[in-house]
């Protein structure tokens, strides 16, 4: 039977497979999954782009559903859609950054500020938490649970907790004009911080760092615990200090884990929406995702699709630059 198959219709297929290198054979096995992933990823993008080429009730004099080409994109970048989008931050950014002349640019600045500071502090705090959890001490299990709890809290519940904490008549962290709390006296925030754009953005970053540092810690800890402990034994025999062990062993070996964690958090932070909506509202702190949701609910589907497609492109560019420049050898 096997000989007949070898000499029959199976022969060419078998010979073709056997002629493949190991790398080519691996790609062959991955092909079905890659095709499925491509369809899942490409179809929504293509559908969104197609929708962005048609008019909604804000596309000039065009009728609803009429093909307008790139007019939605032109209107978005020239500020012709400003009146349809949340605009709380625009006056602030136009005074500080003259090149920001439209609502989309303002939302992009909000998103970038949030992403940079949240990812930076989450990485630093998560790194410290991972170093603590990597030590062998009594009660480490309970410390790990305490660190993970904030990450396990749903975003809506977390947002409401922080919202109530900073309400002047309810929360204990802010006071009133007549009876200011410590944070007010220090000048860190006003008496109505969640109605002020700058204070709101600051508190949203703090809340996100509080929640997501544990995620960074777990990824970094996984990298730490994969390090061969015999390396530290050799370093101790060689007389290396704890700082030298960290500098020469720990940090270089966990750097790939840190980069992966930062990449995941960058992607997630660029899409921030839930914590903003529950704490301050998109009208106060408009992020890129806020613009997508706001225009979709209007409903302005052409504008929403335009904002979504441009935002997806920006996220893809940021991630690509990150991988090429910082993690090309580690991812």
UniProtKB/TrEMBL annotation:
The chain crosses the membrane at residues 25-46, 103-133, 145-165, 201-224, 245-264, 305-327. GO terms for biological process: transmembrane transport. Pfam families: BPD_transp_1 (PF00528). It is found in: Cell membrane. Residues 108-328 form the ABC transmembrane type-1 domain. Its main location: membrane. CDD domains: TM_PBP2. One of its GO terms (cellular component) is plasma membrane. Keywords: Cell membrane, Membrane, Transmembrane, Transmembrane helix, Transport. It is a multi-pass membrane protein. Belongs to the binding-protein-dependent transport system permease family. This is Sugar ABC transporter permease. It comes from Haloferax volcanii.
């Amino acid at each position: 039977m096997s000989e007949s198959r070898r000499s029959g219709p199976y022969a060419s297929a078998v010979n073709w497979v056997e002629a493949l290198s190991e790398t080519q054979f691996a790609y062959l096995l991955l092909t079905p999954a890659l095709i499925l992933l491509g369809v899942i990823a490409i179809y929504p993008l293509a559908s969104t782009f197609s929708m962005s080429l048609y008019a909604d009730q804000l596309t000039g004099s065009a009728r609803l559903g009429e093909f307008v080409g790139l007019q939605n994109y032109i209107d978005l970048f020239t500020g012709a859609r400003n009146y349809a989008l949340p605009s709380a931050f625009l006056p602030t950014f136009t005074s500080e950054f003259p090149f920001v002349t439209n609502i989309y640019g303002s939302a992009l600045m909000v998103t970038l500020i949030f992403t940079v500071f949240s990812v930076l502090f989450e990485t630093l705090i998560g790194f410290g938490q991972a170093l603590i959890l990597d030590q062998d001490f009594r009660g480490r299990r309970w410390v790990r649970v305490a660190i993970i709890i904030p990450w396990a809290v749903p975003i809506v519940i977390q947002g409401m907790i922080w919202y109530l904490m900073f309400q002047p008549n309810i929360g204990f962290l802010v006071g009133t004009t007549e009876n200011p709390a410590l944070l007010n006296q220090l000048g860190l925030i006003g008496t109505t911080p969640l109605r002020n754009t700058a204070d709101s953005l600051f508190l949203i970053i703090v809340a996100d760092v509080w929640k997501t540092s544990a995620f960074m810690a777990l990824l970094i800890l996984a990298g730490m615990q994969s390090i061969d402990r015999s390396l530290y034994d050799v370093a101790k025999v060689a007389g290396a200090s704890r700082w030298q062990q960290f500098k020469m062993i720990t940090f270089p070996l966990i750097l790939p884990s840190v980069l992966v964690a930062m990449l995941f958090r960058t992607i997630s932070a660029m899409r921030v929406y839930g914590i903003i909506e529950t704490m301050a509202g998109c009208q106060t702190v408009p992020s890129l995702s806020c613009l997508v949701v706001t225009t979709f609910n209007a409903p302005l589907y052409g504008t929403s699709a335009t904002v979504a497609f441009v935002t997806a492109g920006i996220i893809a560019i940021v991630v690509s630059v990150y991988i090429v420049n910082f993690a090309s050898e580690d991812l």
